[in-house]
Predict the structure.
Amino acid sequence: MAGDPLSSIGLGAPLDADADHPRATYAYLVQVSRDGSVWIADRAEPSGGIEVSVLSALEVARQVLRRRFVQLRADDSAHWSDHWFRVDVWTVERSRKADTGDAGAGATGAGATGAEVPAGWALSGRHLQTRGIAPDVVEVRTPSQVRCQVGGCQVGR
């Protein structure tokens, strides 16, 4: 439903998988920074998670940030207003292949690093980052973008 306000902020009903858009499992990690150079896990909320979606890794990254910004709107302290936000997203299936080195010729992203994912590990974004497995997508928002996306942009200001 195009006019659904929840869909516009990334909180709509899940899309159905079909042959053209199979579901993929993604791991993500949200991080914050004061200056955009040193990143730490966003400790205000759970900083990572797993998402099963028909969306691309880039679309999942944007959806995760939109959801986080919805949470920030309820934060009266506004401690977030001068922080950078970043979300790293890994395609879990590709990240698992990094364990065996079976990423395929010319692969990019998580499977291209050749780093090992220990058997039995839950593939969270934090674990993948710790193991040096490159994310498939990184989305970053500057403090001014965060203020605009959380509080609304003021045109002409």
In short: Helices lie at 5-8, 57-73, 92-100, 125-130, 143-151. The chain has one domain: 15-151.
